[in-house]
Amino acid sequence: MSEKFLTMRHVNKTFGGVHALKDVNFALDCGEIHCLVGQNGSGKSTLIKIIAGVLDADAGSEVEIRGKRMNQSGTPQEILKSGVCVIYQDLSLFPNMTIAENIAFYSSAGNKNVCVDWANIRKTATTALKLMRVHMDIEQPVAALSIADRQLVAIARALAVNAKLIIMDEPTSSLTRKEVNVLFSIIKDLQKQGMTVLFVSHKLDEIIEIAEKITIIRDGVVIVTKPNRDIDDKELSFMISGETIQYLERPEKNMAKPMLTVEGLTCRGQFEDVTFSLGQGEILGIIGLLGSGRTELAMSLFGMNPPTSGSIRIDGKAVRHTNNRVAIQNGIAYVPEDRLLQGLVIDQDVESNIAVTIIKDLLNKIGFMNTRQRRDIANSWIRDLNIKSAAPTIHASAMSGGNQQKIVLAKWLATHPKILILDQPTNGVDVSAKNAIYTIVRNLAEQGMSILLISDEVSEIFYNCSRALIMHKGRICKELELHEMSEQEFGEEVLHVE
Amino acid sequence: MLNKMKKYSSSHTHEFFLLIVIVVFAVSLSIFTGGRFIQIDNLLDMLNGNAALGIMAAGMLVVIISGGIDMSFMAVATVSQYVMALFILNVGGNMFLAFFIPALVGAALGCVNAVLVHNLKAPAIITTIATMNAFYGVLMWLCKGQWLYGFPDWFSKKTPFSTVAMPVGALLIVFVVTAVILQYLPIGRKVFAIGDNQEAARRGGVNILATQIFVYSFMGVTASLGAVVQGNIIQNIAPNSLVGREMEVIAIVVLGGAKLTGGKGSVIGTFLGMLLIAMLGNGLVLLGISSYWHTFFMGAVILVSFCISGAELKKKKDREVSQVELQ
């Protein structure tokens, strides 16, 4: 039995009336790589914050780090000295500063020197990078680095404050497979030097590969902690969500006439030479990492990001989408990735949100809004999409993620589009809402709407689409007929694209 | 040496670009004015006339690097100037006190700005427009718009040497001090840190409020020093002689390559920005263009400098995006 780095016993945390953590027991051995998995809102961020000393646990909770009782949250300086370093998803770097200053910033912030010791800053940075066996020009500004390299800078900064436990929040979500491999080999190397690492993620992905132990947390309760080899995928996904996704049979592939044809579409610096066609009533999947150009492509089709060259045809007719009004007139609707930022007017009620795309059609002869018609339209969409809201007058902010997403869908369906682009439509919605959204999308396709489904989830694409395009570094690098392969084969294709 | 210069020029492209513009501008001005521009008297006059704004720009640079903005500094400067004038007219004193007392007033008013900006969480531009009106309003109510003049000899008597040395000397001292603070003192790096990524700075143990108090007080101090220099040159303190020139100072800093979003800016750039603004004003006078046009050209330059800064921001963002995608 190896020495414990961290022991948590009967940890509770309540915010107002919300019980975020319920009697949590959690431990980390010195020098292990551990993975904490849980959905959004499962309590994993609260747990990390308590470990890092940013939050206090409720009275009666026991938290021990290296045998020392931790009672209170500390100042940022005390937190850095405790040997626990959290690398948040945003990485918390200073883009305009050099790599050297970024690495040394936290370790030198506490010292009482009168002058800034630039020689010492460079030395600290070089030493930290040497520990990782990474070579970088430390005088470069961080803004010039790729996301993967920025992450290495953040790890080097943790080494510079002498961290013994590094907690990484969603470390692989914007990395390519190759970059993930580099990250993993550095982490393994650090482990040999005695580092304890805790990965935190909201979904099952590459992180699982490297973890020795996995802890699953759901609704503030630790469900299980197990060695990695004792868990299989299906079991894991059930334990994370508490529900199983029931994927429907994939719709039949139909050889309908092409509704949308894209040829050689290029937007300099974002994506290049994108060619594909989307049939009437087809659901076509586009899968790619964050930053692969998938969202930029969707924006270009929707007229919000004019392409530099290439052509777009809708129903055989060449179109130029210089702004999104033209695109909407041509029958395109776009449900954005970030519904809170781009999809909803969060402080308005449901009917205003749904009707915002069709205000012109609702005006009467003297240019006033016909509110009764608006109410009728809202009610009919609420019924059709099974939006669980008491009334069309409820504020969008008061609704769950799944219902909000349905409102965004309703708002765009109200324009009666021919082509519907869905960008990560099930991001942050729970499993039952996911199933409901899939059912809606399939029904729409059966009625003849053409759907472009953009996602980074393998199973979402696999079970809903007949064909899938894999997008990487701004190019479509593969087109796959999904009924010719298994989900696993498809997953492999997606992971190993380079 | 050459290598070092190359490295410097690649990391300070904006400053080099500015230098080239200034040289071209200076050469063409000299030609069009038949050599009058390049005469030493004219150059010194030009520096003198812009020293006050330059000193204030040093403070504005620090504010902009910290990710903030201060619209109230001219009001602060006017208040400090007035307090200084009342003091030397009624109590007396010496040159040291003539700088020291307004600096204290500026620091105090800067503190008020910092505390409000920090706690109200409203955009700094709104908060400081409000304090600008408050500071200026109180001053107008107390002084009833009265002009102050007739200062003692030690403040008004000048030799040909001191006419130049006082403003230009003050300007150089303020610039050197600002450069040292920004590059070599921990507080300077904290200013960069909170402007670059405030959340990361907070996580690293930077006291945001303390840093902002330094930033806005420093702005207050430089505004006041600039005001004393201006008062010393024109020997007449009027409550309305400074207010309204805020944009010129901000333009100097933005022209100098500082980013309005924070985290970036240099003293050398600000110095060059000041030269450019000074040359523009001077050139228009030498070319005999009506002073009404002066305001128009100033506005145009400010607009262009903001556009360039915006375009650079967009270019950089594009580059970052493509870096993510095409690496």
Short description:
Chain A is of the alpha/beta class and 498 residues long. Chain A is built from 17 helices and 20 strands.
Describe this structure in words.
The complex is a heterodimer of chains A (498) and B (327). Chain A is of the alpha/beta class and 498 residues long. Chain A has helices at residues 44-52, 76-81, 99-109, 118-131, 147-160, 177-192, 207-210, 233-241, 294-301, 324-329, 339-343, 350-355, 371-384, 401-413, 431-446, 458-464, 487-495, and strands spanning 4-15, 18-29, 33-37, 62-65, 68-69, 84-87, 165-169, 196-201, 213-218, 221-227, 258-267, 271-279, 283-287, 309-314, 317-319, 332-335, 419-423, 450-455, 467-472, 475-481. Chain A folds into two domains: 4-241, Rossmann fold; 258-495, 3-Layer(aba) Sandwich (Rossmann fold), CATH 3.40.50.300. Chain A contains 17 helices and 20 strands. In chain A, helix 3 (99-109) packs parallel to helix 5 (147-160) and helix 4 packs across helix 5. Chain A is globular. The model of chain A has no long low-confidence stretch (mean pLDDT 84). Chain B has one domain (19-306): ABC transporter involved in vitamin B12 uptake, BtuC (Orthogonal Bundle). Chain B is built from 14 helices and no strands. By secondary structure, chain B is mostly helical.
The portion of residues assigned to helices of chain B is over 70%
The main pleated sheet of chain A reads as: 6 strands, mixed
CATH C-level of the largest domain in chain A: Alpha Beta
Taking Cα atoms only, what radius of gyration of chain A do you get, to the nearest Å?
A: 25 Å
Gross morphology of chain A is: globular
Poorly predicted sequence stretches spanning 5 or more consecutive residues of chain B: 320-327
Please give the order of strands in the largest beta sheet of chain A. 6-7-8-3-9-10
Strand content of chain A: 15-25%
Give the oligomer, counting copies of the same chain as homo and different chains as hetero. Answer: heterodimer
Averaged pLDDT of chain A = 84
Mean pLDDT of chain B: 88
Radius of gyration based on Cα positions of chain B: 20 Å
